[in-house]
Amino acid sequence: MLGTFQENDQVLLITQKGNRYFFTLRTKRRYHTNEGSFDADAIIGKIEGSEVISSTGQKAVIFRPTITESLLFLPRKTQITYPKDLGFLIAVTGLGPGSRVIEGGTGSGVLALFLAWHVRPGGKVYSYDIDDEFFPAIHRHVENLGLSDVIELKKGDLSISVEENNVDVFIADVPEPWKTVESAYNALRPGGMYAAIVPTIEQLIKTSTALKTSGFFEYISGELFFRPWRVKEGMSRPHHKMRAHTVFIIVGRKTMIKDTTLWSLKLPDGYR
Amino acid sequence: MLGTFQENDQVLLITQKGNRYFFTLRTKRRYHTNEGSFDADAIIGKIEGSEVISSTGQKAVIFRPTITESLLFLPRKTQITYPKDLGFLIAVTGLGPGSRVIEGGTGSGVLALFLAWHVRPGGKVYSYDIDDEFFPAIHRHVENLGLSDVIELKKGDLSISVEENNVDVFIADVPEPWKTVESAYNALRPGGMYAAIVPTIEQLIKTSTALKTSGFFEYISGELFFRPWRVKEGMSRPHHKMRAHTVFIIVGRKTMIKDTTLWSLKLPDGYR
Amino acid sequence: MLGTFQENDQVLLITQKGNRYFFTLRTKRRYHTNEGSFDADAIIGKIEGSEVISSTGQKAVIFRPTITESLLFLPRKTQITYPKDLGFLIAVTGLGPGSRVIEGGTGSGVLALFLAWHVRPGGKVYSYDIDDEFFPAIHRHVENLGLSDVIELKKGDLSISVEENNVDVFIADVPEPWKTVESAYNALRPGGMYAAIVPTIEQLIKTSTALKTSGFFEYISGELFFRPWRVKEGMSRPHHKMRAHTVFIIVGRKTMIKDTTLWSLKLPDGYR
Amino acid sequence: MLGTFQENDQVLLITQKGNRYFFTLRTKRRYHTNEGSFDADAIIGKIEGSEVISSTGQKAVIFRPTITESLLFLPRKTQITYPKDLGFLIAVTGLGPGSRVIEGGTGSGVLALFLAWHVRPGGKVYSYDIDDEFFPAIHRHVENLGLSDVIELKKGDLSISVEENNVDVFIADVPEPWKTVESAYNALRPGGMYAAIVPTIEQLIKTSTALKTSGFFEYISGELFFRPWRVKEGMSRPHHKMRAHTVFIIVGRKTMIKDTTLWSLKLPDGYR
Asked: Predicted ipTM?
């Protein structure tokens, strides 16, 4: 039946206790969890949202991971990129199907793959990293996600060697994004969008300052909080813990004016 | 020259004082602002990011609005939808090019147009509203944005009359989203995503509760804050004011289990 | 020497790894921690802020706990009350030395002791609980803190049996604070302040609603977030995790008007 | 009757539309507001919480301002200090009746008066400012609040000329608090608390860094948000706007260790 799980499909399995497991279906395999093991053959042929039972009688439900979920499960050395920040980058830069984007450092590929998913078809993500160690692993995901036409992994330094031009968006996820501002200016089309994501406040300050003296408007700088709620009728409240910090985001826009330090951009509607 | 402003283009004009104006270019027109008037003919032929001067000598820069910016300028009766929330809906539901989405109430069309922009080509947004008063105005924007193939405006009540099925995502932006949960269940494909955006906490509680007894996992419930920063070297700080609240977002996922009240989903990675 | 540690003093010991231990000094004792044991006799005679060394060579510094710190270390069944919320209650109600306060449920006594510390001398805290199980333990802390004249523990139900009147402040930390609104009205002096602290949003809504129909202005309702920062030059950022929620706080003020539902109080300066 | 309004009393008048007015009662005066004028003689003799009517028929209620409210109405050149921050300073430093505190810059006196109110009787606030321009105005408030024995205004520079020693708490509300760290160390008793409140992140970083190399533990650094809620049954939600930023707060504690850079203090309970 259309849409049922088949060999080689990715599975997101969520147990009744709320734990999440992620694996690729192979016939005759068993997937071991803290709540017993799950039989691949009992999953093959089922539709999404079905209940399955572990060897110890624990209930679970099977789904296909969304693009965002599958990226959260990628092995990585560097810090996770959060859905709130990924979504914001799309909304604030205006990128979409057909957009041409330069991005780097590639790292584990999460951001590059997410962007590639959203600029297909017809768009392109040029993802740079000075270290191509993860490229083979990322290529496998590119294949699995059917993104071969959309993403190009390139060994190189965003602050030196960018080859493309007239791109719509340039996203820097590197330790010193202020050093990428000049190559971004050259690579972007007029009116193109620059975004940097940085963990520390000193990086925010340096990047924002560099933008203003390098031909960009500093469009918006800030940070996002996601605050989860736990709803139970009569006892509803926010969760006790939340993420206090992921990254600061700086967004610039390419102008024909060299120095915009004296332009006092107000916070636009939608950001205040 | 490729990419220069032409008649009928949309213009986002930002003055040196930081005010933003939005208009459609018509030859021989002047655009009046608090900082003097701007001459259409001086804009036509210019590239994005160029500086223009008002009748009173004020400087400004001209851009094409991004999709998100153009939606923020749509006339509307209802409250603005914020970029942070729009982006989050994309990231959390996993929708992208090719996705089929039911959405409503249409209202001013902001959410429908944003979603349509991101599911093109090949995807579809079926946008329902019980009141078709704004449909003609929205149709003009659909034309301008080249989204005619992607969006379908339908007069009808999300909680009663949904005609599509096997859709990937169902988004309710209506006063009583808990009443749409049953029709959403019928319209969604197995594993499909439901999202509601609501201003009040009582709506959050009712919708979350309805999901759990109607075949959905309550995947995630919460709210986003955007906190803007004002960077000046040596004097950097957050802005003084921020938005304390836009909407609560509730995300559910269709399962084959009728009642998920006893399933205690943990906050997944990326949301905690 | 004046101010040196003596037998029976309370000690807050902080190790170089950042762990905190709290104990009462007894001669010839050793205090065991994960970082080795500390010798009481090596602490006695030292001044605050001095370095001491554990049996395994780990460094630590010794302090006297502040009132707030000593309360955080009280054994308790119920949830901790946070410094941010304790301080806010003082600031928003205007209580200080000399104030007469009714408070309950006593619980572990944290709030009662904190308030007593701040209304001494001359003030009084009448702390009610329907269960006097913890009263003996609290009495010991009352003695240690020298608060015997200031605090009175009373077995009784805040919503029924309040005996005092003309008090300045009434603070309800009970599961159903809306049931205390009437007895609070009777106990408070004209213009007196009512405050409730509640974990759930339903309690916030019920209490706020009860206040407005029982002779109170709803002065302010809201919640506080504390966001910690981790400063290292060149790598400064907020901590990764924070508390997403402790309590909602509702503050009312006694008026001579029965129903204030139609009075639309604006957020005062200092709260917006 | 005891507690009724008399000539020279301070009045906080809140209208039904929610506006707040603050004045000192003088017989035969009228107080003019946007909602008509109020007659002093109609207020004299009334108790707190009573309703009064303006010349145009608008209703209002009269209160005595709390200490916190009266400080918010002080004329000032500098930025308001928020109740959330005032309360936090009390809770985190552990100051209370009897404490000896050095504070500065005095500015409009808000912080000094608030602290004085809470250390009386027996305590003392030494408030320093390099500019004594506001001292006469502040002295009047000191008289009105009966704080003459508790507060001492001193012309001088916190970073140079502090005369007191063995104080319990030292609070710096000055542009360069890192320059006060050394004089604070000399003025504080062992184990004494240092706190700085600063608007910018660069000040936070410099002050935190200075503390760690000057004999202090950096106890806690962070910021507080107050998020107001607007409760109406069935339509409850946070207010739309909130304060995004007031100040960063840095709290240190005096040790006998010169350099604490290598001590990695964890966030204590109550702050995480």
From this structure: 0.96
